[in-house]
Specification:
Elements: H1 3-25, H2 31-51, H3 57-73, H4 85-108, H5 117-122, H6 138-151, H7 156-166, H8 172-179, H9 186-214
Helix pairs in contact: 1-2, 2-3, 2-4, 3-4, 3-9, 8-9
Length: about 220
C-alpha cells in the first residue's frame, strides 16, 4: 500500500473510532453491539498472539468480552486522540489478563492441601489451578463416576450448561439458547452468558474440591 493510501486508511480508521466513541458517550443503544461486532474477534486474536499457549484460551476470551463490556459501560476511559480503539483494547485487556494471572498465583499459594494423595500430587497441573475454568479437566481428572456425581448437583438449564462446559463448548449463542436469551441484544446476551458461566464455574470448583476432600 502506498504511503498516501496508508495514511488515508489510518485516518479513516481513526474517524470511525471517534464516531463510535461519540455514540458510546451519548449512550446510543446500538453502539455497544457495533463495538462488539467490530472489535471482539480481533481482540481475542490479539490476546492469543500475545500469550501464545501459556494461558487458557477461555480465560483470554473472557478477558476480551469483559473489556468490550467495560468500554461499552464506561466509554470515557478511552481517549481517541491518544491512539486507536484497537490498540487501547489490546493493551487494556492484556493488562487485565496479567493482573488476573498474578491474582490466581497468589490465591493458589493459599489453597488448602487436598486429602487425596494422588490428587494432591497432580493438583498443580490441573487447569483450574492456573485459570478460572475447571471444566476442561473434569472428565480426565475426575473420571466418569465423579462427573456423574457432579451432574447430580444440577438440573434444568444449569445441567445443560454443565454438559456444554464439560464438552468444551465456547460459543455464546449456544449458551444463550439454553438460557432463553436469544431475543436480547447481542451485547446483553454476551454479558448474561458470561455471568451465568462464571457463577456455574465457581460452583463447579467448590463441588470439585468437596468431592476431592471426600475421596
Amino acid at each position: 500500500m502506498e504511503t498516501g493510501a496508508s495514511e488515508r486508511h489510518v485516518g479513516a480508521g481513526r474517524d470511525r473510532d471517534r464516531a463510535l466513541h461519540e455514540r458510546l458517550l451519548r449512550r446510543d443503544p446500538t453502539a455497544p453491539s457495533e463495538l462488539a461486532e467490530r472489535c471482539l474477534a480481533t481482540l481475542v486474536d490479539a490476546l492469543r498472539r500475545s500469550f501464545v499457549s501459556s494461558v487458557d484460551q477461555v480465560m483470554l476470551e473472557d478477558a476480551a468480552i469483559e473489556m468490550i463490556l467495560k468500554l461499552g459501560e464506561r466509554p470515557e476511559q478511552y481517549d481517541p486522540e491518544r491512539g486507536s480503539l484497537a490498540s487501547y483494547l489490546r493493551m487494556a485487556a492484556r493488562r487485565d489478563v496479567l493482573n488476573d494471572l498474578e491474582s490466581e498465583r497468589r490465591r493458589n499459594r493459599h489453597l488448602a492441601p487436598l486429602e487425596d494423595v494422588e490428587l494432591r500430587s497432580s493438583a498443580r497441573n490441573l487447569p483450574w489451578a492456573s485459570t478460572r475454568d475447571p471444566a476442561e479437566a473434569l472428565v480426565d481428572k475426575l473420571g466418569h463416576e465423579r462427573v456423574g456425581r457432579l451432574r447430580e448437583q444440577f438440573e434444568g438449564s444449569e445441567l445443560e450448561m454443565v454438559d456444554l462446559l464439560v464438552d468444551g463448548e465456547r460459543r455464546t449463542e449456544v449458551y444463550a439458547d439454553v438460557l432463553g436469551l436469544r431475543d436480547l441484544p447481542w451485547e446483553e446476551q454476551v454479558r448474561e452468558v458470561k455471568r451465568a458461566k462464571d457463577r456455574l464455574k465457581k460452583r463447579m470448583k467448590r463441588l470439585w474440591l468437596g468431592m476431592a476432600d471426600d475421596a
